[in-house]
Design a protein that fits this description.
The chain is mainly α. It contains 13 helices and no strands. It has two domains: 120 residues, Orthogonal Bundle (Endonuclease Iii, domain 2), CATH 1.10.1670; 100 residues, Orthogonal Bundle (Endonuclease III, domain 1).
């Protein structure tokens, strides 16, 4: 196991990501991709990367949980720099409790919000030991009861560690879903609900990673690389640029028109 996604803060006071001008139709109504177009979209992403992997380094469910909590307002690269020394000292919840908050904070000190993250790690480790025999639970309710764990972090752990078809909506997915018309929404929860409604079952397990990686490396916030986007002809974003050779290679105008108008 190699990678996962950066998860933004999920407790009270965290800011919702704002998409750059979502696809809109007449009178400002959000436009949505048709069901056939959604199937085409995921089919293309799957053909490029059939088994998408995560980008945080971890070896088990506990290390994944810790890494995702640490990734709030931090890059995966930054988290991957601190977790080896943290996991060497504290590979289990009991060991992290023994290490203590002060030492944990020193080991992750290069990350933003490191003091509050250290406090969360000690708190969640205590509950894992006291309530779950030191094991990471596989239910949303139990995960969200842990300090520092909100809906997005729970979704990542359920998906990556336990193989559940959950979709964690971070800033990248929020942007891609709104720009393309895949699942436009005003809030993160709106987008998550929309994705759960439209993503075909065959693609649901990996949808989270496909969309995050597409948003991170192609449909970027400031300078989206529309010229090499394989979804360009499907995308409903009014500010998109024309697709280049890579986009055209996946495009069949007649097929796309039929899918969009279905």
């Amino acid at each position: 196991m190699r990678r996962t996604t950066s998860i933004e803060p999920h407790r009270a006071g965290s800011r919702q990501p704002i998409p750059s001008k979502p696809a809109q139709g007449n009178r400002g109504r959000l436009r949505r991709l048709s069901r056939p177009a959604v199937t085409m979209l995921f089919g293309r992403l799957a053909s490029l990367d059939p088994e998408p992997r995560t980008e945080l380094h971890f070896r088990n469910a506990f290390e994944l949980l810790v890494a995702v909590v640490l990734s709030a307002q931090s890059t995966d690269v930054g988290v991957n720099k601190v977790t080896p020394r943290l996991f060497a000292r504290a590979p289990t919840p009991a060991a992290l409790l023994e290490l203590g908050e002060v030492q944990a904070a020193r080991l992750i000190g290069s990350l933003g919000l490191f003091r509050s993250k250290a406090r969360h790690l000690i708190g969640l480790s205590r509950l894992l030991v006291d309530r779950h025999q030191g094991k990471v639970p596989d239910s949303r309710e139990a995960l969200e009861s842990l300090p520092g764990v909100g809906r997005k972090t729970a979704n990542v752990v359920l998906n990556v560690a336990f193989g559940q078809p959950t979709i964690a909506v971070d800033t990248h997915i929020f942007r891609v879903a709104n720009r393309t018309g895949l699942a436009p929404g005003r809030t993160v929860l709106d987008v998550e609900r929309g994705l759960n409604e439209v993503v075909p079952p065959a693609f649901r397990q990996h949808a989270h990673h496909w969309l995050i990686l597409h948003g991170r490396y192609v449909c970027k916030a400031r300078k989206p690389d529309c010229g090499r986007c394989v979804l360009n002809d499907l995308c409903l974003w009014p500010e998109k640029n024309g697709g280049g050779p890579e986009a055209r290679r996946h495009s069949s105008p007649g097929q796309v028109d039929r899918a969009q108008n279905a």
